[in-house]
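Project standup — Tuesday

K.O.: blocked on the structure for the chain from last sprint. Re-posting the sequence here as requested.
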Amino acid sequence: LNGIVFIVDAADRTRFLEAREELDHLLEDPMLSGVPIVILGNKIDIPIAAGE
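H.V.: unblocked you, prediction finished:
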């Protein structure tokens, strides 16, 4: 495993908590220790999307 790309729908704020919990599970997994993770916000072009 070379890395993980974690994509979050920036326009769906109702699922941010769920996304955070999933990311926390990845970060706590000892098998993934040291594996690089990139977090990307998808749909950032939509006016209701969250910013940085």
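K.O.: great, moving the ticket to review. The chain has a mean pLDDT of 93. Helices lie at 16-28.
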